[in-house]
Amino acid sequence: MLEDMDFIKSCDVPGPTKEAIRAIILYKSDVKYSDNVVDVGCGTGGITCEFAQRAKNVTSIDINPEAIEITRKNLEKFGLEENVTLICDDGVKALNDIDNIDIAIIGGSGSKLENIIELIDSKLNSKGRIIITAILVDTKVEAVNKLKELNYNPKIMEVNISKGRVLDRGIMMMSENPIAIISAKKRRLMGDYKNG
After folding, report:
1. Is residue 4 part of a domain?
2. Domain containing 38 — which CATH number?
3. 172-188 b/e with 16+ CB inside 10 Å = b?
4. Reported confidence tier of residue 191, pLDDT bands at 50, 70, 90
């Protein structure tokens, strides 16, 4: 795992996703070296960098040009740019040109979450996985409801990581990056089993 303090950051771009959260996302994704990964709303590229070390290809999308530039710098810093494609565009527009997705991570949707989930569902391989990170309660509800509508069985995990700081008179615990991680695997419909 890459350490939080090693990432290039910006006040104007969210991220990187904290190390402990990235570790949970990697675990929930069950990433394999043969996987094609899409990171929608890549921010500073924390998740992109982790998947670049473990997957065949990673496509990272963000509408913010500064986010794409910082992700590029982080990939270069860690020597991970070889199997990553960066796209500066709206998530829906960018996803129209991408097929063969094994894992989709949605960290930012610009209020187009339902459209992004639908599009990913149509391009997700038969055993594909979707992982959505959400801070707002409304986003959590929207994501779970859309996944259920598309015949997924979403799992939700609320994560609140605290790190200790040693003081003269004790240890103070400070919370970092409270977030929900919603994960779902593509399920085959009953008719699909009869056809192979």
Report:
1. no
2. 3.40.50.150
3. eeeeebebbbbbbbbee
4. low
